[in-house]
Design goal:
Blueprint lengths: L4 E10 L8 E13 L9 E10 L1 H4 L5 E8 L2 E7 L3 E4 L5 E4 L6 E8 L2 E8 L2 E5 L2 E5 L2 E8 L2
Antiparallel strand pairs: 1-2, 1-12, 2-3, 3-4, 4-5, 5-8, 6-7, 8-9, 9-12, 10-11
């Protein structure tokens, strides 16, 4: 199977990013381009790069994220990073700041014509408007397939 091309999927965000006690599926579209050797998942290993766009209505984020990663016969490892720091504000929207967003790590396996697995961000700290702010660790599940 060729990993190059457009993939559609969703990841699940847990309550602390949206309404308390809820899980929200966020659809996304990812465009993957392999780099170097190993262009097919049937080969031993390969590297890729690309872009990811989350559904801007649900995520409230209209920025494209850069993705880089690796794959092998059974699995995929993706690093997703937005070009700006995105922080949820008290009104439920998001505010962006001139700093890189923390890396979002996706790891998954290929089964039944799709990749599926878990995603997470680590707890980190950023200075926002001169004040140190803690960004919580987050985690969830995800899946994607070629349309």
């Amino acid at each position: 199977m060729d990993i190059n091309g457009v993939w559609t999927g969703e990841y699940i965000v847990h309550h602390f990013m949206f309404e308390t006690g809820k899980e929200t599926p966020v659809p996304f579209v990812m465009k993957i381009t392999t780099v170097g050797e190993g262009k097919y998942i049937s080969l031993e290993r390969g590297l890729f790069e690309g872009v990811c766009q989350d559904d801007p209505v649900i995520s409230k984020v209209a920025l494209h994220a850069k993705i880089t990663g690796s794959f092998d016969r059974n699995g995929i490892y993706i690093i997703k990073q937005f070009p700006m720091l995105i922080v949820q504000n008290p009104s439920g929207g998001v505010t962006t700041y001139d700093d890189l967003h923390p890396e979002i790590v996706f790891a998954g396996e290929f089964k039944d014509d799709q990749f599926a697995g878990t995603w997470y961000t680590n707890r980190t700290f950023r200075k926002i408007n001169g004040h140190l702010r803690e960004l919580m660790a987050m985690k969830g599940t995800w899946r994607m397939r070629k349309p």
